[in-house]
Design brief:
single chain, about 325 residues, six-stranded mixed beta sheet, 11 helices
Length: about 325
């Protein structure tokens, strides 16, 4: 199941009447990763998100873990601490209940690994399987990390390699090799807990997690919300093994076209950027990494802290990559060189 086109979704949301509530710190106006609502007059706020999707992996427990990680990362991208989760289950009434149990076990394992209890949920009879979670967390109302906040002079850090859309498509078409499947399993099930802790301690300007709109779709939202231009160096963007090969072989999702339409002419590609690379940068991601805008003088500290936090958790993380920089706003919001 593909998501609604980001262009269509933006058109619908843009017609809704503006809501004016003093306690809402972050709503949907800037297409941020999660909502933030202040509790009372103090510094405590809650951060909320919801996400669900159809199977992205043949192993039910991995699918469940991916669904959990995808939802958790929305909270982590804001600098929040997840407190609890509610499951969302769309499943055939006469479906294999053991299979459903495996999916939910995987999701609970991922939530519990990050000290988040699954405390309930809701289910409906649906011919097409869809699993996800609504997550609630806590955050300091004065320390929210938004996608609006990137500043000229910052550098851009990406915490996971790209390519989940291409590789899941290759799996569906029975074209994926085992090393790609193994790497995909790791990417889908690795949460942004360590990266989130590191950026809160470091002090960063802005953040967003890379999911269905691809790197360029979410970078566009950051640039638009921040009123800046992002410059991305394609040679520094990390990709999963063979992801570019699969894209060259035509392993593309509907999201490639939808994300291109969403960004439109707000991106400029240098002449040396191939069609394959362009598609790779638009490739929709599941449980992707964080895109962090950080002052250049703090970048080294951020990278060091991410590595240390991963080690504390006893997890084999991904090497964070510096993929670009933030500039004063120009004629286009994203430049890929």
């Amino acid at each position: 199941m593909a998501k609604l086109s980001p262009s269509d979704l933006a058109q619908v949301l843009g017609k809704l009447p503006k809501q004016d509530f003093e306690n809402v710190i972050v709503g949907f106006e800037t297409a941020d990763d999660a909502a933030v609502v202040r509790l009372g007059e103090g510094e405590t706020a809650i951060v909320q998100t919801v996400d669900f999707f159809t199977p992205v992996f043949d192993e039910p427990r991995v699918y469940g873990r991916a669904a959990a990680v995808n939802a958790l990362n929305d909270v982590y991208a804001m600098g929040g601490r997840p407190l609890s989760a509610l499951s969302i289950v769309c499943y055939p009434q006469k479906g294999d209940l053991e299979l459903l149990g495996e999916i939910l076990l995987g999701g609970q394992e991922a939530m519990n690994a990050d000290a988040v209890p699954v405390v309930g949920g809701h289910s409906v009879d649906d011919a097409e399987i869809k699993i996800g979670y609504a997550v609630t967390g806590l955050i300091n109302a004065n320390g929210v990390i938004k996608n609006a906040g990137a500043r000229p002079g910052d550098v851009l850090v990406l915490t996971k390699p790209l390519g989940t859309g291409a590789i899941t498509t290759a799996i569906k078409n029975e074209k994926a090799e085992e090393d790609s499947v193994s790497e995909l399993r790791k990417v889908l099930t690795h949460s942004a807990l360590a990266a989130s802790k590191a950026m809160v301690e470091t002090g960063v300007s802005a953040c967003t997690d890379i999911t269905g709109f691809g790197l360029l779709g979410h970078a566009f939202e950051m640039a638009k919300a921040s009123g800046v231009t992002l410059r991305i160096r394609q040679e520094d963007v990390p990709f999963m093994k063979k992801a570019l090969e699969y894209i060259e072989a035509g392993m593309l999702t509907r999201g490639d076209k939808n994300n291109r339409n969403y960004v439109g002419d707000n991106v400029f590609f240098d002449k040396g950027i191939s069609a394959v690379m362009q598609s790779a940068l638009f490739d929709p991601q599941t449980a992707g990494g964080l895109l962090i805008s950080v002052p250049e003088e703090r970048c080294g500290l951020l990278l060091e802290k991410i590595r240390k936090e991963e080690a504390k958790l006893g997890r084999e993380g991904f090497e964070p990559a510096v993929i670009g920089s933030v500039e004063e706003k120009s004629d286009t919001m994203i430049i890929v060189e």
